[in-house]
Write a structure and sequence with these properties.
Order of helices and strands: HHHHHHHHHHHHEEHHH
Radius of gyration: 28 Å
Low-confidence stretches: none
Structural class: mainly alpha
Mean pLDDT: 77
Largest sheet: 2 strands, antiparallel
Strand order of the largest sheet: 1-2
Shape: flat
Number of helices: 15
Helix content: over 70%
Amino acid sequence: DPEPLGQAEASLLADERYFRRRGLPTLIEDYSATEDVLTRAWPWLGILFAIQVTRSLATSWKPGLAAVASVAAVLAIWIGGNRRAGRSLFSAPARVGWWSAAVFVVVPSLMRINSAVGVYPALRHVAFNVCVCAFVVGVIGWGLAQTLAWALLKILSDLWDQLVIVFRQTAAIFLFCFLIFFTQEFWQFVTFSSYRRIELLLQLLGAIAILTVLVGAPRFIASLQKALLEEDERLTRLQRSNLTILFIVRQLLQLALIFVVSAALFATVSVLTISSEMYKTWDLHPETIDTFVYDGETYLLTDSGLYIALLLALVATVNFAVATMSSSEGREIFLEGVEDEVGEVFRRRRRYLAKRKELASRGVSV
């Protein structure tokens, strides 16, 4: 028997809320930036537009006249757009087209052109307004805020499982790091190198880890789609990009957790094992960050020990990123549950599309 109409519509709305909470609003059918995103942001964009026009006019007009002129410009564009669409003069727009976004970007920017300083202020203004539009479409349209919130909650709710993954990864590389850790040459390299060189090395390792995730994530999502969806259920490019961003955020948070835990572990090992006598034997004189005494022994945390902990933690992080993104064995070990999570999203979308089709066949507008 068909599902009662009210229950079917409520179920459809629940599915759409599910997609939004997961940071996947593009999986909602008929979802678009012009009708579902910019329409929600247009009052704030209108206020910003008025402020920018006022600022531009105030450089050549009296401030009061500039404010009146800018407000009049916003009202004229608003009323003109409604009249052109056949709506009441002050009704909220049902759709904010790309021409409206172009007006928002171009008009205040052209007003910034000044013969004394050239077009540089106008170009800077264009770049700023384009970034504002991209932020609105990204945060509201692609649900980046919900994506980050969901990924954080997922990491925290599965903290024990995440820590198991961290220690599994640490165990996989610990012997290598342990052998490097107690070599005199390694400590000499870190101690005698300038801070700038060490920081550049840290940045390079971090960039490699992030780039590995950015490059590997689209292929991973494409393989999941091929394995879990039928040919006629394949996602659009926009939907696939949305799901890929969700996975990237999740993986970057996992990399951050691995880095923090590994750095804390190696910093603790450096404090417990490298004494002041060891530094004297190696003829090293690092800067002491903190000391404490326990059971007659003095323990040191030095800048060299801290940098070594950060380096080894980043090595572990890069190893994790490469293992998860480049081999099927690594994905099976370190991405437990991800395929189930994505599969649940796909199953939910399959049911969602079936409900829409059923309601449409019963003459209900969806």
